[in-house]
Amino acid sequence: MGGHRPAIAPLPSTPIKVQTFLANLPLFRELAPEELDRIALGTREQHAARGEVLFRKGDPCEGFHMVIYGHVKLAFTSASGDEKVVELIGPGQSFGEALMFIEKPYVVYAQALADTLLLYIGKSVVFEEIEREPGFARRMIAGLSRRLHGLVSDLESYSLHSGTQRVIGYLLRAEPEPDTGGKVAQLKLPTSKGIIASRLNLTPEHFSRVLHELTAAGLITVEGRTVTILDLERLRIYEG
Q1: What is the Cα–Cα distance from 11 to 43, expressed in whole angstroms?
Q2: Are residues 66 and 121 in the same domain?
């Protein structure tokens, strides 16, 4: 991969820390301590500063990443130089598993959107654990299936839903605030509005227009990257 991938230093002196991280991730939560020990041997901690590129399109994929904190953008650049954001990866989410299994190079590039801590799990230890424990294989398959389902849902949204519907669908992922009767929710955008717009297959101008429209309708307020949904039910009806 040349000089593109930041060095991933092994952590032989802090295996407990790696195991603690692994134990709190959905994929590894059901593993016994001895199984976590084996996974930890093939796991490296990776720190990425905001703006740092983790890998580029065409680099070999020798494992997969899981985000502990921070956010990572998966994107590609068109021949005309335009960027298309494919996915935004947040805490507890992973990326790179599919290419790891088919032993293909990366088809996108990955860039940290904030100071980010990741775990990089080598494919050899994953393959060994799959052969040893069928339950682990099922969880890997389930994770890949969820990712595929999400991509199909995205394609449906881009093809059949208006820009307003796409933005509302994104905002409705917010969890209701306590003591509001499930009415009010707040969402902190993980990155700039331009990147969110690309993720929704919209121009930044279109994304901003939709936010202004929803604000004018009394459905949301926007302060910087914080969006407050004033009435979740009204917003759902507006989407329809």
Answers
A1: 8
A2: yes
